[in-house]
Write a structure and sequence with these properties.
This protein has seven helices and two strands, in the order ααααββααα.
Length: about 240
C-alpha cells in the first residue's frame, strides 16, 4: 500500500515536471523558504538595533523559532527534490548561464542548511538555558555539547558565529542575483523558468525583442573580451613560472 502511495505521488509530481513546471509541493517549499529567509534577514538586522532586556529576548526567541522551522523545511525541501526531481526547463540549456544557475542553487542549499545549523550550534554551545521548540508545539533538543570544556564551547560558538555571518553575507549577494536572473529569463528571454515556479504568472509569448538583441550583443562582447584576456593572462603566468 505504501509503495502504491509513493508511486502515485511520483506520478503526480512527474505530471507537472513533464510540463516544465515545478510540483505544487516544490512551489510551496520555495516560496515559504523565500518568505522566511527575507523575514530572518530583516529581523536579524532589527535585533541588532533592539535594546537589551525583554524586547531583545523576545526578538531572539522568535529568531530561534523561525530558525528551527527553516531547518526542518530545508531538510524537507532537499528530501522532496531527491524524491521528485525538478523539471528540465529553459534554464538547463547548455552554456554558462546553466552552470551558474546550478552553482547558485548549491550555494543556496548550503546557506539554507548552514544558517539554522550554525545558529543551533551557537545556542547549544553558550546559551544552553534557551528553550528551542518547533513552532512552539514540541521541544527541540540542543546539540549534545554539554560535556565539552568551556574553552571548546567558546571556540565552537565563535566558529559558528563566523559561519553564520558569512552565510548571511552570501545570501545578501545571491538573492539579488537570483531575482535578477529570474526577471531576465521572464522579461528578456521570455522562457518558461519563472512561469514554472510561479504558475499564476502568465507565460509571455516567445518572440525576439530588442532587449534580447542588446543582451546577446553584450554577452558576445564580454565573451570576446574574456577570450582575449584569458590567453594573455596564461602567457604571462607561463613567463613568470620558474624554470626547473
Amino acid at each position: 500500500m505504501i509503495d502504491r502511495l509513493i508511486e502515485n505521488i511520483l506520478e503526480w509530481a512527474a505530471g507537472h515536471t513533464d510540463e516544465g513546471r515545478y510540483s505544487p509541493v516544490g512551489i510551496v517549499f520555495h516560496w515559504t523558504m523565500a518568505a522566511l529567509v527575507l523575514f530572518q534577514l530583516g529581523w536579524g538586522w532589527w535585533m541588532g538595533l533592539a535594546h537589551p532586556g525583554g524586547e531583545m529576548v523576545a526578538a531572539y526567541d522568535l529568531h530561534f523559532l523561525i530558525g528551527v522551522l527553516m531547518l526542518v523545511l530545508a531538510l524537507g525541501r532537499l528530501g522532496w527534490r531527491l524524491f521528485a526531481p525538478e523539471p528540465i526547463n529553459d534554464a538547463d540549456k547548455p552554456g554558462w548561464e546553466s552552470t551558474a544557475a546550478h552553482v547558485t542553487h548549491y550555494v543556496f542549499y548550503t546557506c539554507l542548511l548552514g544558517l539554522p545549523l550554525s545558529g543551533w550550534a551557537i545556542v547549544s554551545a553558550t546559551a544552553r538555558d534557551t528553550q528551542l521548540t518547533l513552532l512552539g508545539l514540541t521541544p527541540w533538543p540542543l546539540m549534545p555539547l554539554q560535556d565539552l570544556p568551556t574553552p571548546t564551547l567558546w571556540a565552537i560558538e565563535t566558529a559558528a558565529e563566523w559561519m553564520h555571518r558569512a552565510l548571511v553575507a552570501s545570501l545578501l549577494v545571491l538573492i539579488p542575483i537570483h531575482v535578477g536572473a529570474a526577471l531576465k529569463h521572464h522579461v528578456i528571454d521570455r522562457d518558461d523558468v519563472l512561469h514554472g515556479m510561479l504558475p499564476i504568472l502568465p507565460q509571455r509569448p516567445r518572440r525576439r525583442t530588442r532587449w534580447q538583441r542588446r543582451y546577446r550583443a553584450l554577452e558576445k562582447r564580454v565573451a570576446s573580451l574574456a577570450s582575449r584576456l584569458w590567453p594573455q593572462s596564461r602567457r604571462r603566468s607561463g613567463r613568470r613560472r620558474p624554470s626547473p
